[in-house]
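One-letter codes give the sequence; each number marks local geometry. A record appears below:


***
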Amino acid sequence: MKKRYAKVSRRAARNGWPMLLLTGACCAPAYAQEVAAPVAPAASAPAADAPAPSTDEAASSAKLETVVVTAQRVSQNLQKTSISTAVVSGKEIREQGLNRLDTVIQGTPGVVVQTQPRGYLVAVRGLGTDLSPGVGDGAVAINVDGTYNARPEGTQVMYDLARVEVLRGPQSTFYGRSGPGGVVNIISNDPGFHNEGALALELGSYGTRRVEGMLNRELTDNVAIRVAGSVLKHDPYYNNGTSDADQKSLRAKLLFELSEDASALFGFEYVDLGGAGAGYVPAFAGNSVKDPWKTANPITGPSERYIGTKYWAQLDAKTSLGKLSVLTATSGGHNHQFIPTGSWLVDDDGEDPHSLRQNTLEVRLASQPVEHMKTLVGLYYYDNDMRIIQRPLTGPLAGGTIHQNSGARSKAVFGNATYSLTSTTRAVAGLRYTIDDKWQTTDRFPATPGDSSGTWHRADWKIGLEQDFGPKTMGYATISTGYRPGAWSTMPPDYPGIRPESLRSYELGWKTQSADDRWRLNTAVYYYDYRDYQVQDFYVDPTLGPVLAFSNAPKARNMGAEIEAQWRPAEADALGARVGYINSRFRSTIVIHPDGQNVSVDLNGSTLPHSPTWTIGAYYQRTQSFDSGKLVARLDGRYVTKYYVSPNEQPLSMQDSFWTGDFNLTWRPSQGDWSLNGYVKNIHNVYVKNFYSSGWLRGGAPRTYGLVWNKTFR
């Protein structure tokens, strides 16, 4: 019915049937709430750049917008989803110039973003990624357009997005692959059956230049295409020429309506990341120097070049049993990095990754809605293969070549069900059975090679209750589990293994919205019980040289809460507040070697890394209307208490408490589909640590400012 309506509407537009279109527009929202269908095409319409609403429309503009998410693999209202979820819309991302993942989700309660050389990793509720790439798995899965992203490079470029979802807590029964701590879904816009284009131009501090474009075309009644691209350049943040940007990316999607009940979507993405690479500063500078970005050690001519490609296809079809979805993807990449002699950490001419290949296949069947039961069942397959090559110029392995080959294969079957016990009470249950295979070969000349492999079988589950306390109020209680497979060391002396990590989560949640849709309040409290928490330890042994060792903390626990509120007291005003609380502890002996020294320290009783006790944020947005347009001012502020940025929990790896904010001022004219946004990010110019190793830090961006011009063509 939906596709038939879309075709009739398009023909009506071409033949001038305004009344039919108006009638269809009134009926469409009710249908959208009934059917679990992808929502990204609808989200692609740049409503933020539309002309000012009429007087009748203004009456409803003071209401909060309905937020639709795909957190449980089907489209549903955020307020009806029994998962603690934060969402950032594509409209906010586009207008505020949020072109990095850290700026998109910063300030989200319970979330800490970890900067990587070519992208970002995310820690949620104290669970993040501290294991070397290709060795261990992350605790938070980052999915881009529905497919798992094994490396951080895929998170570097953010453009033409529908939304970004942050799902807190174990999502094993829905997502499975490396998601005990949570999931981040990055969802780009799909093609739509309309003709439009968009252009964004940005100029800012540090020589920032960004050009982003999009073209959406209806090729036939049944075929639509969307092509988007982005070029971003900025000068180095660090005085030694590192932490610059030289990024180019392209994405193309082709949508076929095969019939009224079936569609096929094909996608391609290309990313080219160049520049000098990531920058580091001495750890003491991050604590005691006003402008740490000016303290990096001199390096002459560092460079890197990463090129990645991704192809994917998705088939959706309505069957007598329900909606069938098949998603398959293949991606690859390679990187060449050069750090010249005399640099601060390692002198090498190598590739990390030298080559990377990843394939995924997922098949899901969402049942047709029935009176008491709805289900989702599926099959999942994943494999990857990665090679890393390094050629040290100094140190114990100077003159040799290090080859590391690693791979993983994961197979799973999963199912989730919701059963209505009464008209207001529902029971939820989920189960996923996974078989993980991993292998690794390390050849270090002149050191001896090390080969490792292992297989893990795991059953994760979820049970819970959902209770409606009113038309727009829901409470839920869930118990769920998650895990990470084991791993091995890639360095001498004996390549010891690491046991799988497991987690059991207990969570209570409450979601409510006022009857007039002017305010919304979502809360969650949780308790985590860890077993065999995975820790990576790097130190220099006087005899063996560099040692990379893995170990497990037998017991750890984490408990906390999140509160997120939004309020629209009037059409011109919007307010929001976010509060996150984390209390975490190692509860058993776990020995590491701080600061790379051959001295052991027991972390028993210490807090887990990436766990600020308090994260507090708020924003205020004011819209001032004029005959010629609207001026929108928005101020975001956040305060974060101190936390460790790595398991090496020493004073130099501690991020002190800080507060900062962002300011945006946007002009939208009454006539013309364009807007102009001025921004200041990191107002207080705070150096926020997000990585520490052996006396060296990596941190976030300094204060930046600029202008973003957005234009839509129809």
Q: What stands out?
A: Helices lie at 2-15, 18-34, 40-43, 55-61, 90-95, 101-105, 283-288. Confidence is low (pLDDT under 50) at residues 1-59, 342-347.
